[in-house]
Amino acid sequence: MSLRKSKLDLLVRVRYSNPLPAPPCPPKLLNIPTDPLRYARPQFLNAIANDTPLPVIVDAECGMPLDLGRWECLWEEDGEDTSLNPDPDNPPPLDPKDRFLLGDPSASATPYTNGAIPTAPGSSTPLPPHVPWLRKTEYLSREGVQRTPSSQEPKQPLQPIDVSHEAQLRTIEAGFAACASLDLATLTHPNKTGVTAVESYEVLPDAEIWANAYDLFRFSERPGERPVDTEDPRLDCAILRPMESDGDHFLAYYLTRDDADALDFKEERLALKGGEENKATAFHFVRDYETVKIEQEVPNEFLLVLDNGDTDKRGPGAYYKNIERKMTLKKKRMNASDTYADKWQVVHISHVAMSSDEVEERGEALAEVVDPLYLFSRDAEGEVDADGEVDVGGGIVGMDGDEDVEEGGGIMSEIF
């Protein structure tokens, strides 16, 4: 072992910045321009003024002596106190300088402008509004204009509002009548000039998919390892499996091996009827994704289907379904030591009929839009939870093809 030390072990070069201020007085034989006002600033005397006591002599009466010996009623037991308590019917004459003390306190507290005194109550000129001193001037001027009374505008008495059940029904029916008499040609596009409405739809809940729970997933890049301009039919039937490893929650992403398997899987799902089973489809592991942002409430985004009523299953209308959550995903960094026990490389999915409990649970969720007395029945049974949410059946996946997956969950993906 060598005991030789480097020469730079104890040698550290440090550069200090030491700017020197300008000298207070120019040195001899060197003319440096100096502002003479720097020697006459009043701040130099603040410390002296604070330390110097003020020579003010204040007596016990605070400079306002009061001779109580002038009133004998204060010393005699039954003295006359008319000098201290004057007769209210015959008050003493008031000095003109003290006349403003009898005015309105709110009016007297209003700041005067250029020494002008506001008009007393009962005059024709209105008083300015009394506002805090921290208010901005533009709001002050606006309130002054709004609060100015106008003699030409008579006050309209408030009309009583009928809130009975019959009045509410009449209001609702009047809204339907207004929609029926609406001319679509008068409705124009807010951004495109010359574009008008040609047809209207009734907005109704989609009873076919209302029992399903839909989440919106946004990827930071396109999944599937294909270019953006290349069509990938596998993306709309992908699988996201929730995973957990050492307290870390993430999602495992699965796709079919080729496009033909994805197309066959979607065609079989559309052709299936209740109680039928189909062959299992293999989905292979692609990579893991971690959630960047989760929004539990998505009030402004929903599924919307415009149906013209061509299939005779339901009438024409705009059918909607709300979205439960919205998540933003990014690729999870893959480490060689990052292993977990329940990692599946291949998932086989097939369709089986739902059990009786699942059918009952699905019917309860569907009753929200099918049963007109849903709210009354739920309140009577006390089954509505705090958030008003209803759990619906999800999916079960297996690793060897013997397990099956039930229909009911929904996944949507968006790439940006």
Describe the protein's topology:
Layout: H1 46-51, H2 105-109, H3 137-146, H4 165-180, E1 203-205, E2 214-219, E3 239-245, E4 248-256, H5 259-271, E5 281-295, E6 302-307, E7 317-322, E8 325-331, E9 346-349, H6 356-370, H7 374-381, E10 410-415
Parallel strand pairs: 1-7, 2-8, 2-10
Antiparallel strand pairs: 3-4, 4-5, 5-8, 5-9, 6-7
At a glance:
The protein has 416 residues and is α/β, with parallel strands linked by helices.
First-last Cα distance: 60 Å
Discrete helix count: 7
Biggest β-sheet, characterized? 7 strands, mixed
Low-confidence stretches at least 5 residues in length (pLDDT < 50)? Answer: 108-118, 384-416
Series of secondary-structure elements, N-terminal to C-terminal: HHHHEEEEHEEEEEHHE
Count of DSSP strands: 10
Tell me what portion of residues adopts beta-strand conformation.
Answer: 15-25%
- Helix proportion of residues, in percent? 10-25%
Q: Which class best fits the helix and strand makeup?
A: alpha/beta
Mean pLDDT: 75
Protein name: RNA polymerase II-associated
Region (Disordered): 78-132
Keywords: Nucleus
Family: Belongs to the PAF1 family.
Task: Give a description of the structure.
This is RNA polymerase II-associated. Keywords: Nucleus. Belongs to the PAF1 family. GO terms for molecular function: chromatin binding; RNA polymerase II complex binding. It is found in: Nucleus. With 416 residues, this protein is an alpha/beta fold. It has a domain at 204-333 and 342-415. The chain is 18% helix and 17% strand. It has 7 helices and 10 strands. It has helices spanning 46-51, 105-109, 137-146, 165-180, 259-271, 356-370, 374-381; strands at residues 203-205, 214-219, 239-245, 248-256, 281-295, 302-307, 317-322, 325-331, 346-349, 410-415. The strands form 2 sheets. Strands 2, 3, 4, 5, 8, 9 and 10 form a 7-stranded mixed beta sheet that branches. A 3-stranded mixed beta sheet has the order 1-7-6, with no helix packed on it. The longest helix has 16 residues, at 165-180. The chain starts with 45 loop residues before the first helix and ends with a strand. Residues 108-118 and 384-416 have low confidence and may be disordered.
